[in-house]
Amino acid sequence: MRYSIIGDEETVLGFAIVGVLGKVATNAEEALRAFQDIVADKETSIVIVTERVADMIRPTVDRYVFRESFPLVVEIPDRHGPMPNRPSVKEMVNTAIGLKL
């Protein structure tokens, strides 16, 4: 089982420190190419995408989130924090487990 990340340079670098491979995407074309490359790798079971990058390729990300069972696609805030009107990671965890941490 492998994790991979797609995001801005700083986020990808931060994840690389703990051994998560990733691809930097600064525009929609790079984001789509990176996403397609990562989901084509059958060793990757979890794809982490920053919210800003996911918004660049929203239809593709949503297809995997809502219709595909593999790989799991998880959106996270980047170094700038959550986007407006998006829950924080803590709020998402609280909702998922039904407890306030």
UniProtKB/TrEMBL annotation:
The entry's keywords: Hydrogen ion transport, Ion transport, Transport
InterPro entries, alphabetized: ATPase_V1-cplx_f_g_su, ATPase_V1_fsu_sf
One annotated Gene Ontology cellular component of this protein: membrane
The keyword Transport is annotated on this UniProt entry: yes
GO molecular function: proton-transporting ATPase activity, rotational mechanism
Keyword Disulfide bond assigned: no
Family annotation (Gene3D superfamilies): ATPase, V1 complex, subunit F (3.40.50.10580)
Similarity comment: family membership: Belongs to the V-ATPase F subunit family.
The name this protein goes by in its record: V-type ATP synthase subunit F
Organism: Anaerobaca lacustris
